[in-house]
Each structure stands twice: as structure tokens, then as C-alpha cells.
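Hello Y.,

Per our agreement to keep a running log of every chain we model this quarter, I'm adding this entry. I've kept the format consistent with earlier entries: sequence first, then predicted structure.
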Amino acid sequence: MNNLVKPFALIMALTIPAIASADVTANNVTVGEVHITYTAADAASSYGRKELESQIRRAAKEVCGEQNLQRTRSLRQLLKNRSCYDKAVSDAMKSISTSA
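Predicted structure for the entry above:
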């Protein structure tokens, strides 16, 4: 299973582009196999950004794997998963900031 997570993590890290256009009202962020759809209004409001960040965090957990040592049963895997998660969330939030 972990062998499947690594390619998804790499794909996720490389496919979170900033999709921005003044004429576009909805944006899609592709994270591995997870798609998050939002509008410019969602990204502009405080509540919308919090909800969007929550969705991004859930998607990162799904793609990057467990964030719990008891479940990964390996410190090395836990560190890889956390690194993947942190980068995915950071990159996705940056892409939203540049497209909003």
C-alpha cells in the first residue's frame, strides 16, 4: 500500500498549479486522485478559506497516508507521510492565495 502512496504524493506535489484567471469563477485543484472545487468567493471569505483549508487537509491525509505512528508502525514512514502532508497543504494554500 505504501508503494502506491509514494507515486500519488509525487503526483500531488507536481500537480497543484495555481489556476487563476479574472474571467473564471470556479477553480479546481487536483491532488492525486482528489479534486477540490471552489469559487473565488469561497477563497475570498474568512469562512470559505477555513472550509477550503479543511478540505485540503483531508485530501492531503488521504493522499499522503497515516499521520499516526501507531498506524504507520514505522518512524521513517511517519516522517515521509508528514513531510508529504505538510508540503501538499502548503503548496495548495499558496496556489489558492495566488489564484484568489
